[in-house]
Design a protein that fits this description.
The complex is a heterodimer of chains A (665) and B (217). Among the domains of chain A are: 78 residues, Orthogonal Bundle (Arc Repressor Mutant, subunit A); 205 residues, no CATH class; 87 residues, Arc Repressor Mutant, subunit A (Orthogonal Bundle); 73 residues. Helix content of chain A is 63%, strand content 9%. Chain A has 30 helices and 14 strands. In chain A, strand 2 and strand 3 form a beta hairpin. The longest helix of chain A has 35 residues. In chain A, 35% of the residues are buried. The N and C termini of chain B lie far apart (66 Å). Chain B has a domain of 99 residues. In chain B, helix 2 packs parallel to helix 4. Chain B has 217 residues and is mostly helical. Classes of the chains: A mainly alpha (665), B mainly alpha (217). Chains A and B meet through helix 1, helix 2, helix 4, helix 6 and strand 4 of A and helix 2, helix 3, helix 4 and helix 7 of B. Chain B: It is found in: Nucleus. Chain B: Its main location: nucleus.
């Protein structure tokens, strides 16, 4: 974790103040500005009474904003506190996270996640108990006084604790929630030191040479830390076997909506588990959303949907944006996570219409005529096959697609399709037939329409995946032919592309499209002199100089001098422009942080301007009948404030998106 | 101004080995006077999308819940900063949103292992001994009905109202004894007297109404 810069500190302080209030932000700010502190020095720096500081620390530790570590120093235990600025920043993601869970798990998911966001971490049992009480209380209180609002009551279906538990289990499985480990509460550096010390102690006896020992320790340390970061990756982590009761079977059937495993052993979430919101997983989901929208923009909407399904599959295996992997694993193709076209087909929702989403290249007119003749004489499907593979050689993509869909559509593939379990019972008999007919072409008239449709769909899906692979952004990577084509995703590369794109957008906004052109040329060619740059970009040297100087000032471009002779003279020197992407990235990032801080300050100013009015509108008596207690002008003013805050908040979220792209993806 | 300065700088150091123009004299630098305040088109925000609105409405309700919850704290104002005009206790103040100076911690169970020992007393655990004697503590669960109204995402106005109500139930009585012990007691919340006047005519009406309401009740 990088140390926070001044602008980050400012922003994080504002965010904490926005969410948890002034006292909390004061404590957090002291820690962010000064690094780790003990309780007494913290009190001194914040000038708050010790009791308040302690209470605030509890709040912030509970929310995972502050980490702590106790050292034994000089026979005395000292506890140091440190602020996790990333966690502070991630408070901003709350809205997105709740939305995301709402989309996936409905209202229950949103409730769970929003409560957990408020609670920090919580024991599942406590959580469910609290829920049970709140619902029963809610029912009681609701029945009597709120006769006037039947609408609210109508759309508040209260789910049972059981359902909530099941949803929580699903969320745990999807790693949206994770178990809190004690090392989550400590600063990463201390955790690393502690693990290192442990490993060194264990291995000390086995090595004589200090050098070898350090090397081995480093290797093991890396492994252990990677394990820690990945968390418990077992499928049923945090779950326990469900106690089988007499009514177990009926129960299972009842809540089959959330129950998907067909195994005999049922799992449910362990009530003793302490869970928290896994921000890393949500970042991954946000990155996927970003990639999907990019694919949609570059290729087509339907392709975007196909990509979304593929990424959903990946999500079950990938849980972080940047998993910590050793250098030896990185290039190992076996360790890459792959999915086959058939996997996608199996999980592909029926309601997405793929027909006519990819247009086949026009076939050779001669062949077409032949085809017509053939269909008249009703030749068998084998020759039809030959026709097709010949006819589609014109385009690279389609030829690959059809060859594979004809020749290589293995028995396995079609069986996979049949396993999907989502098709109607009517097609059962046709399945057996499809086994024998799988070599036949789509246009075969004898084939069952259901099977043909499915086959066609698989072919289309594959074409979409090929389109994704063929794009210059390489949304997916072709890995092999197993299972009707196997695909993986190079997230690192895509992340780099996303970052580059975002920087280009900013450059375009500031330095016009010519600026972007120059930037791209420099990215492509490396280091160039001004004259060359002008020639390649077909722009007047004057324009180039103005733009390049501006971009240099902003830190996006850098300049290197290469003297032609010694001693170096200005007139006899090459001046080469080049792009350092990571530097440009971090500079833009810090600008964005600043912009976000200004945005929040602006919101505060606007709020301060209307302080009395807002306070009044929040009064309980006014809340109860807004219509009566607020004058017309007050209502207008409130509406103005509300739209302004909306705009500022949306802008904040948009900037947050840029930050996620530049920093996290 | 700057033009002259730059010129002088160049000429002064123009000797051999100094600053001669690095690019030769292929381009004549433009020394004409530039406009002092050139027109600068202001960027405009693209309209908010539906999804964005939904997201911020969620964010807002989340923030609102925390603010009404036990963890949101405001700074106490220092002695002597209170405004004699507005910080008088008024009847309508009882309806104001309650603010707290210190977080309220004893309402929920904690996982003690996750806290350093020196904070155990703060979260209600005796050092060494087992805490949680007697009464069972519960998490404060913001119940479903506070979330649900947001289902119709566009009617945030309404939703906010509900959120407030939901949270309010437990807040009012508890905080008094906690707040008071450390800070000077100005019960009025964070009133800033100057604010009352600097808004000028915009706020005249508000003020009038505010008063009116108070008496009206």
């Amino acid at each position: 974790m990088a140390l926070p810069s001044a602008s980050t500190v400012e922003l994080c302080t504002l965010i904490v103040s926005e969410i948890y209030g002034e006292v909390s932000s004061k404590v957090a700010a002291a820690l962010l500005e000064r690094g780790r502190l003990t309780l007494s020095s913290l009190c001194r720096h914040t000038r708050l009474p010790e009791k308040t500081v302690k209470q605030t620390l509890v709040v912030l530790i509970q929310q995972h904003l502050i980490t702590h570590f106790t050292h034994l120093e000089g026979g005395r235990e000292d506890t140091w506190y440190d602020c996790n600025w990333i966690a502070c920043y991630e408070l901003l993601h709350a809205g997105r996270i709740i939305r995301c869970m709402e989309e996936r798990f409905g209202n229950d998911g949103a409730t769970i996640i929003s409560n957990l966001l408020q609670l920090g971490h919580a024991r599942v049992g406590d959580f469910l108990a609290a829920y049970g009480i709140s619902t029963s209380k809610g029912r009681k209180t609701k029945a009597a006084p709120k006769e006037s609002e039947p609408k609210i009551e109508a759309d508040a279906p209260i789910s049972s604790v059981e359902t909530l538990k099941a949803v929580m289990g699903e969320m745990l499985k999807g790693r949206f929630l994770v178990e809190v480990k004690d090392y989550d509460m400590h600063p990463p550096v201390d955790v690393e030191n502690r693990v290192r010390a442990e490993i060194t102690k264990r291995l000390r006896g086995q090595f004589t040479s200090e050098l070898k020992l350090t090397k081995e320790v480093n290797i093991q340390l890396e492994k252990r830390l990677a394990e820690m970061k990945a968390g418990d990756s077992a499928e049923h982590a945090g779950m326990k076997r469900k106690a089988t009761t007499a009514g177990g079977r009926a129960k299972k059937r009842k809540k089959s909506a959330y129950d998907e495993d067909e195994e005999e052993i049922e799992y449910e979430i362990d009530e003793d588990l302490i869970v928290r919101v896994n921000h890393a997983k949500f970042l991954l989901v946000f990155r996927n959303a970003e990639l999907i929208s990019l694919a949609e923009k570059r290729i087509s909407k339907v392709t975007g949907q196909v990509y979304a399904e593929f990424l959903k599959l990946m999500e079950s295996k990938v849980h972080q944006c940047h998993p910590r992997i050793g250098p030896e694993d990185q290039d190992d193709p076996k360790k890459r996570i792959k999915f086959t076209t058939n996997d996608v087909v199996r999980n592909f929702p029926k309601d997405i219409d793929l027909t006519d989403s990819v247009v086949d290249p026009p076939k050779d007119p001669v062949k077409k005529r032949k085809k017509r003749a053939r269909s008249l004489s009703s030749l068998d499907s084998d020759s039809d096959d030959g026709r097709r593979s010949k006819g589609s050689k014109h385009s690279k993509t389609s030829s690959r697609a059809s060859k594979k869909s004809n020749g290589k559509k293995s028995r396995r593939g079609s069986r996979d399709l049949d396993d999907s379990g989502s098709e109607s019972d009517a097609s059962v008999s046709s399945r057996d037939r499809s086994e024998s007919e799988e070599e036949s072409d789509d246009s075969d008239d004898d084939m069952d329409p259901e099977v043909r449709k499915r086959k066609k769909r698989a072919g289309l899906l594959k074409k979409h995946l090929e389109l994704l692979a063929a794009d210059t952004y390489h949304f997916v990577k072709f890995e092999g032919k197993r299972g009707n084509g196997e695909w993986s995703i190079d997230y690192e590369e895509l992340g780099k592309k996303l970052r580059g794109l975002e920087i280009e957008k900013i450059v375009e906004e500031r330095y016009t499209s010519v600026g972007t052109r120059l930037l791209r040329i420099l990215k492509d060619k490396g280091k160039l002199e001004e004259k060359q740059l002008a020639t390649i970009s077909l722009t007047a040297q004057n324009t180039v100089r103005a733009l390049v100087a501006g971009m240099h000032e902003a830190g996006i471009l850098l300049l290197q001098e290469v003297p032609k002779s010694l001693p170096p003279q200005v007139s006899r020197t090459y001046f080469l422009w080049y792009v350092d992407e990571s530097r440009a990235n971090s500079l833009v990032l810090s600008d964005v942080y600043k912009a976000m801080a200004r945005n929040m300050q602006r919101t505060n100013v606007e709020r301060q301007k209307r302080k009395l009015l807002i306070e009044k509108s929040e009064r309980t008596d006014v809340q109860e009948n807004l219509e009566e207690y607020l004058t017309k002008s007050e209502k207008e003013e409130l509406a103005i404030w509300r739209t302004r805050e909306d705009k500022l908040l949306v802008q904040l979220m948009r900037l947050d998106r840029v930050v996620m792209i530049l920093r996290d993806f | 101004m700057s033009r002259g300065g730059r010129g002088g700088f160049g000429r002064g150091r123009g000797g051999p080995g100094g600053m001669s123009l690095p690019f030769g004299d292929d381009i004549k630098p433009d020394y004409s006077v530039s406009e002092l305040f050139p027109p600068c088109p202001q960027p405009t925000q693209t309209p908010l999308s539906k999804e964005e609105r939904a997201t911020i409405s969620r964010f807002r309700s989340h923030r609102e819940k925390i603010r009404n919850g036990p963890m949101y704290t405001v700074m106490a104002r220092k002695r002597g900063q209170s405004d004699p005009f507005t910080d008088i206790s008024r009847y309508s103040a009882r309806y104001l949103r309650q603010t707290r100076r210190t977080p309220k911690l004893d309402a929920r169970p904690y996982v003690y292992e996750f806290f350093p020992v020196e904070l155990y007393s703060t979260i209600g655990k005796d050092e060494g001994g087992e805490g949680e004697a007697g009464k069972k503590k519960r998490l404060l669960f913001s119940s479903l009905d506070t979330l649900n109204p947001l289902e119709e995402m566009m009617s945030e106005e309404e939703a906010e109202g509900k959120v407030e109500e939901g949270g309010k139930e437990e807040v009012p009585e508890e905080d008094d004894e906690e707040e008071m012990d450390e800070f000077d007691d100005d019960d009025e919340g964070d009133y800033n007297g100057e604010q009352y006047f600097d808004g000028g005519e915009d706020y005249d009406e508000d003020m009038g109404d505010d008063r009116g309401d108070a008496y009206y009740d």
